[in-house]
Each structure stands twice: as C-alpha cells, then as structure tokens.
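A quick aside before the break. I want you to see a complete sequence-to-structure record at least once, exactly as it would be stored in a machine-readable document. Don't worry about memorizing anything.
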Amino acid sequence: MSSENLIQKPMKNTNYEIHRNLLSFFHQYTIKEKNGFRKYKVRSDPFLLGGTTILKDINGHCLWKIRKSRFSYLNKLKIASVDTNGTEHPIATMKEKFRFIVQTFVIKSITYGNYIMKSFHGGSGSFALKKEDGTMVAIILPKLSSMAIVYKVEVFGSDNDMNEDDHTFILALITVFIRS
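That is the input. The structure line, written in tokens, reads:
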C-alpha cells in the first residue's frame, strides 16, 4: 500500500446564506454563496390550502418544485426536479412527523437517499439535515438583520461527493423547512 492511499483529502464545507424578504406577501428568498454572489431564487406561494415552492437559478430557470398536499394536518410534500424543457420528474417525498416540541421531517428519495430534518431544542430556528444513517449533511442557523431574516447554511463534505444537483436538492429541502 502506497503512502498516497493513507493520506485522505480534507473535507471542505460549502457555505450559503438564505435571505428572506420580510416585506413580501409571498415567501421570497435569495440564496447567496459565502462570497456574496447570488446563486438561486426561491418563491413560495402560501401553504394555506396547498401551495408550491419553486427554486430557480439566478437566470430564472426552474430547477425544483415542491408541492404541498391539500387538506393534510401535517405537511406532506412532493418534490420534483424540473428539466430544461419544463418537465417535472418526481424525486422525493417529504413528510412532517407529529411535533410536540421538535419539528421533524422525513425525506424519502430513490435518487438522493433518505434524510431526516430536525429543529434543535428551544425553538431557536436552528435545525440540522442528516442522512438516514445519522451522517450530518447540513446545519442551518438563523440570524436577524434589519430588513431580512438570514439563514446561514453549511453543507458538510460537499467537495468530495456532491455536485450542484445535490446542493440544489438540499437547499430546496431547507427552504421548505424554513417556510413551514
């Protein structure tokens, strides 16, 4: 065994900021990279009787659509990727578990695997996204500013085994969790 095989590449994390405009009737977000460049836009219709959250790239091309099931006490969502022709491809389901103190969603996807998204105790607005096996995927921490609520997102180990589709899927899940 060579010494090259013993040296592991350090895992780098990717950081994003999700900015929510407080003055908007619809839930609108801008997702920026750590360097401040705008990367994605999110628009969410009211989830009162069903609704849709759409994640677009900065040029306005739709990447993901998340639809809430109507007439459901707990949130049940269907997540679809959208190709360049506008065709939707079902990718995952996201179901809210009954909440006593901690808000929890279970995400099931054949393409991306299964995840659990859970808020931290104390209602601080912070939460974590983990794979089904307990591996931490992302952590989300809120920060208030004068004109917006900003969520700091850190996606762990993202340079080793994730591509941009993985990131947009994770960011779509996060915006739905923030919205609910």
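Two observations worth writing down. Helices lie at 3-6, 158-161, 164-179. The domain at 13-179 is CATH 3.20.90.10 (Tubby Protein; Chain A). We'll return to this after the break.
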